[in-house]
Amino acid sequence: MDTQHRQTWAIVLAAGSGSRLASATGGTAKQFLQWQGKPLYWQSAVALYHSQVVDGMVFVFPSGQLATEEPRVRALAHQHCNNLPCRAVAGGALRQDSVRLGLAAIPATADFVLVHDAARPFLTPGLVRRIHAALCEGAEAVIPGLPVTDTIKQVASGLVTATLPRDSLAAVQTPQGFRRSSLLRAHAVAQEEGLLVTDDAAMLENLGALVHLIDGEASNVKITNPEDLALLAAAQPVPLVGMGYDVHRYGQGRPMKLGGVPVPNGPDVVAHSDGDVLLHALIDALLGAAALGDIGQHFPDSQGAFEGISSAVLLDRVLAMLREAQVAVCHVDLTIVAQTPRFSPLRDEIRANVARLLGLERSQVNLKATTEEKLGFTGRAEGIKAYAVVSALRLSGQTVQNP
Prior knowledge:
13 helices, alpha/beta, CATH 3.30.1330.50, Spore Coat Polysaccharide Biosynthesis Protein SpsA, Chain A
């Protein structure tokens, strides 16, 4: 597999009129329904961002709503996606026109493009990563699909003309992934030929390109009809809390680090890894919030592979596990307990670095330090301990409301 970073942008299509849902939503297009205080299209953006393979996003809106949605996208990207580059453009009359206009806003440095319908808010970061992996392995076009379980009849004027073999059929979903150069060429040819299609893969098929099918997700449904709104109403976010604790003894061993920040003149700590007691407590809290066990289960000190390893590396692996479980961290509260050394001069640096490692704003990370009034092993300056509390949400959906 190609391990080189390949720049990838996503196009989120939110330019449709949603006419089939208009009567059930009071005329509001489905992509603009408010879901937990945010427009429905933003749920797709969250999954794309948490995949950690998307370098930027282009949102395609109806021309009449571009002026309203463009600043909203920028604000949401700042608040929830660590300022991931996000652009907004006006769409066209047809879906393929909107894709073409979104494609024009993607930087020429991008290698891959993912095209996703905002009306599919239940995609997972794992699906995005699988599509991206297939592109990195050399595929020119990748689409997710599910086997067709119903018998499909071909009809004309109300009469059946053929029964199609369902073992050769697939129900196709988005996002669909492409080499950017191939998708640009496919759209140019389709425009020249006047070719009308319902998805971008058909344009690549028109060029004779090989389109790879990977397993889709049954939950990745499209909100199309009024009855589909029940799926949104039933999908509630699950609040999660995790608590972590760790302790290390002072003694000949590792130079002290806290939250990935070296502590000048701090005592050495005895540890198998790098001995970062704060990140160890945080890792346990993250695993606890997602019900994924504890740090010793995943990174046992009996394994030589973890000897001296950076706790920031372990944290990154745990965050990947949370993304796969669709758990989004909202806030962390950290406490360092030690008689010595004093951590006040490093408080801001540690807090900022933990926020960076988690991909959070500094306002989402709190850090406290205290002594134990010379009581116990910490009071006797024999060691250090840390506590962490994590607040998170399992991204299973939110309540839908009309604006």
